[in-house]
Every structure is written in structure tokens, then in C-alpha cells.
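Blinded run. Sample ID left blank on purpose so nobody reads anything into the name before looking at the predicted structure. Input follows.
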Amino acid sequence: MRRLYLAAGLLFTALGAIGAVLPIVPTVPFLLLAAFCFARSNPAWERKILKHPTWGPQIQDWRERRAIARKAKVGAIATIAAGVGFTWVTLGFPWVWISVAVLVIVGGWIATRNE
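Blinded prediction complete.
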């Protein structure tokens, strides 16, 4: 089981690294999952994620208070809204309604988290 958690942690870390470069892919959710997996497989790697100057505080805020910083909220909701615009321009109706639903559901959930 430990190897499975380690493999998953590495996968989620890679996805988080991709998210740090690509604006549409999230970073922190993948690093949250990586930290969870590393806590069960390699605590030293979990500590490295938690001590990272950029991502560590966001992960600790989520773990301790289930909080998302206002800047991160605005960025996430703006990115989803941009996705709605992109879907509208490229696919049009009725496909844009899927993106609108994601914006309402996910964006609403993000907006209601603690800061």
C-alpha cells in the first residue's frame, strides 16, 4: 500500500508542476493530494511540499482551516470564467452551458470557502 501512495504522490506532484506552468491546470489541489499521499508513504517529501515558500502556506491553510486565500479564489474563478468564454467562442451553444454549470457549481463552492 505504501508503494501505491508513493506512486500516487509522484503523479500528483507531476500534475501540480504542470499546473504551475499551464494557467488552466490547477496546482494546489494536486499538491494537496500529493501531500496526503506522501504523508502515508514518504513523510520527508510531505515536509518538502509543506515547506515550499509558494505552495506550502496555501496547503497548510487548507489543512488547518479549510481556507483559500482571496487572491487564489479570484484567480480560480477568473480562470473558470475564461474557460466559459473560450467554450463559447470555440464550441458555442449548447456546449457553453456545461462550462457555465462548472462556473456556477465550482466557482460558487470556491467563493464560499474561508479566507
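Unblinding after everyone has recorded impressions. The chain has two domains: 2-65, 70-111.
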